[in-house]
Design goal:
Blueprint: H1 9-12, H2 20-26, H3 29-41, H4 47-63, E1 66-73, E2 81-86, E3 88-89, E4 98-99, H5 103-107, E5 108-109, E6 129-133, E7 140-144, E8 147-158, H6 167-187, E9 196-210, H7 211-215, H8 218-223, H9 248-263, E10 268-273, E11 279-284, E12 287-288, H10 289-309, E13 312-315, E14 329-337, H11 354-369, H12 371-377, E15 399-400, H13 402-415, E16 426-427, E17 437-438, E18 450-452, E19 457-459, H14 469-492, H15 496-510, H16 523-532, H17 540-543, H18 550-558, H19 564-618, H20 625-653, H21 661-689, H22 700-705
Parallel strand pairs: 1-8, 15-18
Antiparallel strand pairs: 1-2, 3-4, 5-6, 6-8, 7-8, 9-11, 9-12, 9-13, 9-14, 10-11, 14-19, 16-17, 18-19
Helix pairs in contact: 3-4, 6-14, 9-10, 11-14, 11-15, 12-14, 13-15, 14-15, 19-20, 19-21, 20-21
The protein binds adenosine-5'-diphosphate and magnesium ion (MG).
Adenosine-5'-diphosphate binds near residues 200, 284 and 342.
């Protein structure tokens, strides 16, 4: 490796972040302390302090080359949004421009909010929306084609204070889980913890293809997924891509992604090839949930941007290609105290760790009672093609505990008491030169949507393109509710130990149905889950009602995470998004098939017909039956294509008839989507019949094997 290519990670890590170290260096001591207090205790920041912070932040950013700043927020579009302002103020009489940035500009922004989804929230109010600085997630300087920009993470609310984004409710849910966790800790005699924060690590899956192939596929350009495409002779059946050696071109891309992320303070840690050809994964080290939500957005943005620089395209859609695995995002979640405890750490002898057992049983209750809501939090249009297809968790929520905890849990269910834990065993390989080591007490189960993995739960349903905001809002709040209910009982008890024993017994017995350690991909599980009364919600539209049930509304209002009108608006937005995305897909399909596929097939049929005529006239004895058979077959599929296309077009015309978003969404699911499937069949057959030179776009094989 050449000297200039060597990367000093410790030197570059966080260099573009206005982090604690930078703040300590640059801010006056008093200002630093006030800001820290705000971050730690949620105290309001006074404008004088904000002015000083803003000034120093600007000076620091300008040293890094920044010309603009932006409030960066996460409206309910799934992506992030930003509007850039330069630091320039009106020039002095001398004509020299001044650069300024005030405390007010730092803490409050007012983007024109009228075009962001509000689900009717703003219909009755003014269209104003505000962004407010989230000082718990550090500001940073981003370098891209725009130059360098100071990016300020913010929350986005309406004029009346209603949340229009992911971050506001997330911060509210963090307050809820903090408060209830502290109550629980106090019951167990802990007086040293003052803050409990969810820690999250999100593993991001993605596809990388050549950008010229991407641009040649209008379906990928407009919808993020392929709408047609025949399977290549080889798919993922050999498992030779999974964890395989990383190809040079991808390696160079990953290297640059890591450097960009490290500069932004994102701890990019693990990278590997995933199951499907052209599929990869990146995982950072876990951190506080609100920072992780921001960092996951940065990871997605960085993957896309760096791919572009390398002549590649990053596909984040949950199912870009039918027939090979889709992409998800594993959301690893635990609860960590500021005195260094992980509430989900069972220790060596979980059966003796009563606090852990209570926490575990509360989580089981939370997941069991709100399985529908948790499922909803992972619902997005793309995930409908992925969940339940034996490549990702089924659409049924259940919890995998692993051997050790399952055994402890069984004891709790039967007697309310656990007297022993299965210990860790020595791993023996039978090879003398390999060292023996201790195995984990639990194995893994990749088929489970919600799995205990040592000292955290891994929620595996989340879609690759989705924000991890929503699943974590749900997790934080449902667990806060279960903790709160438990504390209500235990705080009143005369005899704490007996009350604790009884409560654990009862929770374990009441919620044992949610525990499942078997194969989640099997048909038996679907039947078994039904017997247990567990919801099996197979698609997004059936998941949305969970947002507004009485049970959900009561819980969210109790913990001040969402109001009823905020929830109604979110449900409305989801129906709207569903209908819009399916509409784009359907229109794209019509476009591709009318303008590219049919003309190409007609050209090809003409070529065959011409060849029949010219061969026959040149040599009347020549057998042209192959050409004739091919022409017949292609023409038959062409006819099927035209007929299916017509059905789709007719049904698509009627989508304008609905005034209600929900009805429109259902119409897309139940009428338009089946039309699209029907149309795909003859087109994919045609792809296998038509000369590759005539087929108007790259094939699956071209896209996923030629990177
Ligand atoms: P696994 O092998 O179980 O998937 P990894 O060590 O690969 O675990 O971690 C997967 C993700 O989970 C990473 O982002 C990691 O930082 C995160 N993680 C590890 N421990 C915790 C924890 N206690 N809480 C939350 N996330 C965690
Ligand atoms: Mg994992």
């Amino acid at each position: 490796m050449k000297e200039e290519e060597k990367v000093n990670v410790t030197e570059i890590f966080g260099e573009n972040v206005f982090d604690d170290r930078t703040m300590q260096e640059r801010l006056p001591k008093k200002t630093y302390q006030k800001l820290k207090q705000t971050i730690r205790d949620g105290k309001e920041l006074d404008i004088e302090t904000a002015d000083v912070v803003a000034h120093e932040m600007k000076e620091w950013a300008i040293e890094k080359g920044a010309t603009h700043y932006t409030h960066w927020f996460q409206p309910l579009t799934g992506a992030t949004a930003e509007k850039h302002d330069s630091f320039i103020t009106s020039p002095l009489p001398s004509g020299k421009a001044l650069m300024s940035f005030s405390g007010k500009e730092l803490i409050k922004g007012e983007p024109d909010a009228s075009s962001f989804p509000s689900g009717g929230l703003r219909a009755t109010f003014e269209a104003r929306g505000y962004t407010a600085w989230d000082c718990t997630s550090p500001a940073f300087v981003r370098e891209d084609a725009c130059g360098a920009t100071l990016v300020i993470p913010t929350a986005f609310c309406s004029y009346t204070g209603e949340a229009l984004d992911q971050k506001t409710p997330l911060l509210r849910s963090m307050e809820a889980i903090n408060e209830q966790s502290l109550r629980l800790l106090r019951l167990f005699g802990n007086t040293t913890a003052h803050k409990v924060t969810p820690s999250v690590g999100a593993e991001q899956e993605y596809f990388i293809i050549d950008r010229k192939n991407f641009l040649a596929r209008k379906d990928l350009v407009y919808t993020g997924r392929t709408l047609i495409g025949a399977m290549p002779p080889k798919g993922q059946e050999m498992d030779d891509h999974y964890f395989g050696a990383i190809r040079e071109r991808i390696g160079a891309f990953m290297h640059d992604v890591n450097i960009e992320l490290w500069k932004l303070g994102v701890t990019a840690k693990t990278q590997h090839n995933e199951v499907a050809p052209a599929q990869h994964e990146l995982a950072p080290i876990y951190e506080e949930v609100n920072v992780e939500v921001d960092h996951n957005q940065l990871i997605m943005e960085t993957l896309k941007r760096v791919a572009y620089d390398h002549g590649l395209q990053c596909l984040l859609h949950e199912k870009p290609f039918d027939g090979v695995n889709g992409s998800g995002k594993h959301n690893n979640w635990s609860l960590v105290t500021d005195d260094g405890q992980n509430l989900l750490d069972p220790g060596k002898t979980p059966h003796e760790n009563m606090q852990f057992l209570l926490v575990l049983c509360c989580i089981l209750k939370a997941v069991d009672e709100h399985a529908d809501l948790l499922r909803e939090s992972a619902a997005d249009v793309g995930n409908d093609s992925r969940l339940g297809a034996n490549e990702a968790p089924p659409a049924i929520i259940s919890v995998y505990l692993g051997d050790q905890l399952a055994d402890v849990f069984d004891q709790l269910v039967s007697t309310g008491e656990a007297t022993h834990s299965i210990g860790r065993k020595k791993m023996q390989t039978g090879v003398k030169t390999l060292p023996d080591f201790m195995k984990d007490a639990t194995d893994r189960n990749r088929t489970s949507p919600f799995a205990f993995t040592g000292n955290k739960f891994e929620f595996r349903m989340v879609g690759s393109e989705d924000s991890i905001g929503e699943p974590n809002i749900v997790l934080n709040t449902i667990v806060a509710e279960a903790f709160s209910d438990a504390c209500d009982v235990l705080e009143k008890a005369d005899d704490f130990d007996t009350a604790l024993h009884d409560l654990i017994h009862q929770l374990a017995a009441d919620h044992q149905r949610i525990v499942f350690n078997g194969n989640g991909y099997s048909d038996e599980w679907v039947k078994e889950a039904e017997l247990r009364g567990l919801p099996n919600i197979t698609n997004m539209l059936d998941a949305i009602p969970a947002l507004t049930t009485d049970k959900t509304v009561q819980m969210y209002e109790r913990f001040h995470v969402f109001t009823k009108s905020e929830l109604d608006s979110r449900a409305e937005i989801e129906y709207e998004i569903y209908a819009k995305k399916r509409n784009i897909e359907a229109k794209t399909m019509v476009d591709i098939i009318r303008k590219q596929v049919i003309p190409a097939v007609i050209k090809y049929t003409t070529v065959i017909a011409d060849s029949i005529t010219s061969v026959s006239s040149a040599c009347p004895e020549a057998d042209v039956s192959t050409q004739t058979a091919l022409l017949t077959e292609v023409s038959a599929q062409l006819k099927n294509t035209r007929e299916s296309l017509q059905s789709l077009e007719i049904d698509l015309e009627r989508t304008g008839d609905f005034s209600d978003e929900k009805a429109r969404a259902f119409y897309f699911r139940d009428t338009v989507l089946p039309d699209m499937k029907g149309l795909r069949t003859p087109v994919d057959k045609l792809e296998m019949l038509v000369d590759k030179e005539y087929w108007p776009m790259p094939s699956y094989g071209d896209m996923i094997f030629e990177v």
